[in-house]
């Protein structure tokens, strides 16, 4: 799996859920299909009068979710911005050509009410529940800086406080915790294989010495 494949899968799903936050801090979700995909960016169309447009202009932060028939979840977290005025018509016409139904929604010159937004920096999270063990991975879209990353270090990890008792292994539903031996001391501790972790928290709840920590809490 890689970023290119994730974007192709999102394109095949077609209709994606876009989540924003309104002026009162309430979550808002819409299904959007007026989307064009580039190798390193995503462009989409909406009307200037819509609440969705105003929310994007006021804040820009958006999450986009696709779910495939193979039990794959793909989530793009990024910041949308309106493309330059000189490029609006170009990207709008591309989207209308790829999505013929839009001509029925906005016939003729009424399409001028639209505005094109772009997301070219963000994180794409891939999560496959259709395999065992499950598989997850995070990919970077564009030149996202470390401080701007939204999904970095999610889930749990086992610290040096581990006493090697193996309680976490017994409670892990995906068997993604492995025993690791220190080459110098011969002591054993456990480590989570992050690409197979559900983030369910079972290891965290059952560790007798509190050696399992949430990444977000540090």
TrEMBL record:
Residue ranges annotated for the 4Fe-4S ferredoxin-type domain, each copy included: 153-182, 188-217
Gene3D superfamilies for this protein: 3.30.70.20, Electron Transport, Fmn-binding Protein, Chain A
Gene Ontology MF terms in the entry: 4 iron, 4 sulfur cluster binding; metal ion binding
The organism's place on the tree of life at top rank: Bacteria
Keywords recorded for this protein, A-Z: 4Fe-4S, Iron, Iron-sulfur, Metal-binding
Family matches, as Pfam families: Fer4_7, PNPOx_N
PROSITE patterns assigned: 4FE4S_FER_1, 4FE4S_FER_2
Names of required cofactors: [4Fe-4S] cluster
PANTHER family, alphabetized: PHOTOSYSTEM I IRON-SULFUR CENTER, PHOTOSYSTEM I IRON-SULFUR CENTER-RELATED
Function: Ferredoxins are iron-sulfur proteins that transfer electrons in a wide variety of metabolic reactions.
Protein name as annotated: Ferredoxin
Species, as recorded: [Bacteroides] pectinophilus ATCC 43243
């Amino acid at each position: 799996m890689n970023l290119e494949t994730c974007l192709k899968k999102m394109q095949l799903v077609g209709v994606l859920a876009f989540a924003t936050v309104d002026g009162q801090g309430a979550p808002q979700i819409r299904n959007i299909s007026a989307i064009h995909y580039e190798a390193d960016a995503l462009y989409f169309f909406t009307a200037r009068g819509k609440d969705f447009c105003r929310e994007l202009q006021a804040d820009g932060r958006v999450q986009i979710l696709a779910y495939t028939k193979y039990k794959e979840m793909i989530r793009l977290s990024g910041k949308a911005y309106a493309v330059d005025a000189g490029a609006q018509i170009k990207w709008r016409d591309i989207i209308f050509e790829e999505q013929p139904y839009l001509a029925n929604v906005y016939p003729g010159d009424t399409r001028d009410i639209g505005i094109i937004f772009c997301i070219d920096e963000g994180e794409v999270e891939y999560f496959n529940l259709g395999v065992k063990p499950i598989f997850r991975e995070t990919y970077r879209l564009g030149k996202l800086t470390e401080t701007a990353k939204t999904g970095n270090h999610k889930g749990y990890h086992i610290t040096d406080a581990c006493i090697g008792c193996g309680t976490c292994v017994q409670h892990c539903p995906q068997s993604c915790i492995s025993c690791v031996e220190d080459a110098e001391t011969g002591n054993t501790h456990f480590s989570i294989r992050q690409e197979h972790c559900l983030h369910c928290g079972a290891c965290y709840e059952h560790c007798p010495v509190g050696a399992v920590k949430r990444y977000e809490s540090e």
